[in-house]
Amino acid sequence: MPDIPVWNKCGNRCVMCANTVSFNRGPSARYRLRAQIGRFERYLAGVPAYAKNAGNPAALNLTGGEPAQNPDFLKLLAYFRKRTPGRELALLSNGRRFCDADFAKAALLAGGKPFSVAVPLHGAGPASHDAVTRVPGSFRQTLAGLRNLFAYKRPGQTVEIRLVLHRGSVKNLGPLLRLLLREFSGFGGWRAVALHYELVGRAARGSTALDLGLEASAAAVNACAPLIKKFGEFRLYHFPLCLLKPVLRAKAWVSLPPEDRAYPPACGACAVKGSCVGLTPRGLARFGTAGVRPVEEK
Ligand code: SF4
């Protein structure tokens, strides 16, 4: 099922935002309830209506901007739930609106099951998190939102906490993992995901504050292997297997579609190429193949 941009505005101004400026600054009328329903009904009738992942048989991905800022968000969530029974609704949110306990309860009720909410957390405290979102107070709201989601989620609902690694956040990984273990170890039905940032949207422009190659990103993940082992479920997105310690490779997912993956010539001799996400064409062009080497045995 397709990726659906539920709303084009966002209250955060994240340094690695994957949205373009033109998307965020465009008019919002096409994201309101009636326009969204019209588009989705056309999609269900077989008319091409969405740009990304239309052929994906798995989840209906609800993205933004910040979906929960749409004034029609709860009605839209209930509509998508009703029109896709049994399919996973996968919501990507900055988590801030869920600091309102009543809003969190209403969203979890409307999302039904299966329903997952993915929320990025960028640091273990206000200074480090808010430096990435560039909005003072966002850490406090996002952490409160996560606490509400954990408190009120039901069977069939999953919380995913994302740690997006780039030059401005990679130093936060260890403290962030310790925070998550302290806060949420006692709960079931959740996972943590560490992912290397994508060179799309604003992040594609690059900057010295943002640019980080995969080798340095994977080194930070490898250094945290003892902490990662303590999580019930932990995933790694966008990391080539050869850059990861062997003990972490089973946690790596092929997290990008074929058109966003690139395999340099060295990969031809690799025993695990079939289960490796490789590099991205843009990452290859900007950072080269440093550190990539064939794995000899599965
Ligand atoms: S050599 Fe290529 S295919 Fe093999 S693990 Fe590294 S990036 Fe993946």
How does this structure look, described?
It is built from ten helices and eight strands. The protein is 32% helix and 13% strand. It is globular, with a radius of gyration of 19 Å. The protein has an eight-stranded parallel sheet with strand order 1-2-3-4-5-6-7-8, covered by helices on one side. It has 298 residues and is an alpha/beta fold. Iron/sulfur cluster binds next to loops.
Task: List the defining traits of the structure above.
298 residues; TIM Barrel; eight-stranded parallel sheet; binds iron/sulfur cluster; single chain; alpha/beta
Largest sheet: 8 strands, parallel
- Report the mean per-residue pLDDT as an integer: 94
Q: In one word, what is the shape?
A: globular
Number of helices: 10
Helical content stands at: 25-40%
Total domain count: 1
- SSE-based structural type: alpha/beta
Low-confidence stretches: none
By CATH, the architecture is named Alpha-Beta Barrel
Q: What are the secondary-structure elements, in order, as H or E? A: EHHEHEHEHHEHEHHEEH
Q: Count every beta strand, where a strand is a DSSP E run of 2 or more residues.
A: 8
What oligomeric assembly is this protein in? single chain
Ligands bound, unique:
iron/sulfur cluster
